[in-house]
Amino acid sequence: xxxxxxxxxxxxxxxDLEMPHxxxxxxxxxxxxxxxxxxSVLGPVQIVGVVGDDFPDAHLDLxxxxxxxxxxxxxVTGKTFRWRGRYSEDLASRTTLDTQLNVFANFRPKIxxxxxxxxxxxLGNIHPALQLEVVDQIEHPRFVAADTMNFWxxxxxxxxxxxxxxxxxxxxxxxxxxxxTGIQNLCKAAADIRRRGPTQLIVKRGEHGALxxxxxxxxxxxxxxLEEVNDPTGAGDSFAGGLMGYLARxxxxxxxxHTMRRAMFYAAAMxxxxxxxxxxxxxxxxxxxxxxxxxxxxxxxxxxxxxxxLSAAEA
Length: 315
Ligand code: AMP
Prior knowledge:
Layout: E1 6-9, E2 13-19, E3 22-29, H1 31-39, E4 45-51, H2 57-65, E5 68-75, E6 82-87, E7 94-100, E8 120-123, H3 128-137, E9 143-147, H4 150-155, H5 157-164, E10 169-173, H6 174-181, H7 186-194, E11 200-204, E12 210-214, E13 217-221, H8 235-249, H9 259-274, H10 281-285, H11 288-302
Parallel strand pairs: 1-4, 1-8, 2-6, 4-5, 8-9, 9-10, 10-11
Antiparallel strand pairs: 2-3, 6-7, 11-12, 12-13
Helix pairs in contact: 1-8, 3-5, 6-7, 8-9, 9-11
The chain binds adenosine monophosphate.
Adenosine monophosphate binds at residues 11, 13, 15, 29-31, 83, 99, 125, 233-237.
């Protein structure tokens, strides 16, 4: 059977990363880069983004070598988007030191003709008006997922509300869910968000895992505990890429109660690989076999070998 594709739209960047173990300048980054590389472990991917004339061909060659179609990467005169962040000693938090939009400032995603029928669409964190433009350019998408951030939640609430009506799944972190709704309790915040459009919501909680809220209830996937964490940059984007890659590979719009729950494990596994090396290096080299082994380890992590039901005598 032909493998379905995932379309990814978002930033392609150079990242300057100040980590406790050293500073890394000009690392390949961007939300779309991480998501595309992660999804491509599971099947074909199409990427839409913009780079400047300083962006090495080698990076595009790398994407292509990983089954990522780069027809939708526009190269324009100027500098590529650049982001600089500093991580805390425990890597649990980070501060943005500098964001240079450069060619990204005038980005208007143009969906190539060959991408227009792509069934699975992942809208990375860009202006919600641009996310809407992308949805409008795709013919009958089967499943649309979107990411956003505090900047758009506070700055573009009306456009973001219009976008929410057009997406099946919103993927955000706990802070963003609280800011979007003004509700502290995550379960109540999730119910509020799901009334605004997306039938499904994922709330990411970094090293504390992720929650799925959908018509079948609430589901939790932990973050895989690792001894070696080197760089959390892009973990959320890799999570989203892994999730969409799984759905496309299984030709599923998450209709059955368990599809999305399984997809959550693929997503979390991909996030866990991402943090092992600086930049997308680990995702770039990841094989399906290695992913399979991590999924087995995940199963062992949450398998308690029985049921949680009280016996008749105890109940
Ligand atoms: P994550 O760690 O999953 O939040 O993703 C980090 C990636 O997002 C980095 O590679 C950055 O290049 C990219 N990024 C940072 N700020 C922005 C922004 N304002 N818009 C789009 N992408 C960004």
